[in-house]
Write a structure and sequence with these properties.
The chain is mainly α. It folds into 2 domains: about 5-70, Winged helix-like DNA-binding domain superfamily/Winged helix DNA-binding domain (Arc Repressor Mutant, subunit A); about 80-225, GntR ligand-binding domain-like (Four Helix Bundle (Hemerythrin (Met), subunit A), Up-down Bundle), CATH 1.20.120.530. Helices cover about 65% and strands about 5% of the residues. The chain contains 10 helices and 2 strands. It has a two-stranded antiparallel ribbon with strand order 1-2. Strand 1 and strand 2 (about 70) form a beta hairpin. Helix 5 (about 95-115) crosses helix 7 (about 135-155). It is globular, with a radius of gyration of 18 Å. The termini are far apart.
């Protein structure tokens, strides 16, 4: 017997949605059922479903686009991608940064050409949250949201999937070796202005500036963490 929506807790709704995606054997690019169908299939409220979708979108599992629906981007765990877990043990942080430098400036360029108004607003919101972060963990999550929102702004599911693949390896590489000397990013943290330049270039539809700003940002991060690479 299907549970009545009013009795499904938000955490249970997320669990049910994860199971629904796993059982459906969805692949990157596949579209999830419409909201009404998902509510009926899972027996959850609209609010609980949307909160669960928000969580999966932040994790990079899904991508929501007006007019296209909700799409699967990448599998939910490293283990579900053949070779990804092994690859994450072979890649060094410097190799990872060089890979980012190869892909993300191109993504920024594409975002400047294709970003919708909603996409630009999501970029601005993620940037503003990063600037307001009260600790490094929160900042890093919001910084991640900036870069993924940039990929989403391209409107290109292949670029989004490539970004997510790269980002999953990045998360698995030993970034936590970085030593933080403050509780939160300082007010003059260089990435703040770099993010501003990237987002401004996308909003102004300037592909050359967007590519350059992202490249400069990643070079700055790389130099700060590893020196010249």
């Amino acid at each position: 017997m299907q549970l009545q929506p009013d009795f499904v807790e938000p955490d249970n709704a997320l669990r049910l949605l994860r199971a629904f995606i796993d059982d459906g054997e969805y692949s990157p690019g596949d579209r999830l059922p419409a909201e009404r169908q998902s509510i009926q299939a899972l027996g959850v409220t609209r609010n609980a479903l949307r909160k669960s979708l928000d969580t999966l979108e932040r994790e990079g599992v899904i991508w929501r686009h007006v007019g296209k629906g909700t799409l699967i981007t990448t599998p939910q765990t490293l283990a579900t991608v053949p070779g990804l877990a092994e690859l994450s043990h072979q890649v060094t942080p410097i190799q990872m940064m060089r890979a980012r430098l190869s892909l993300e400036p191109a993504i920024a360029r594409e975002a400047s050409v294709n970003a919708s108004g909603d996409s630009v607003n999501r970029l601005k919101n993620a940037r503003d949250r990063a600037m307001a972060a009260t600790n490094w963990d929160t900042y890093e999550a919001d910084d991640d949201a900036i870069h993924r929102s940039m990929a989403e702004a391209t409107g290109n599911i292949l670029l989004i999937s490539l970004f997510d693949y790269l980002n999953q390896v990045r998360r698995a590489v030993a970034w936590r070796q970085v030593i933080r000397h403050t509780e939160r990013p300082p007010a003059d943290h260089t990435s703040f202005n770099e993010h501003n330049l990237i987002v401004d270039a996308v909003e102004q539809r300037d592909p050359v500036a967007a590519h350059s700003a992202m490249q400069n940002h990643l070079n700055s991060v790389s130099k700060r963490l590893f020196g010249d690479v």
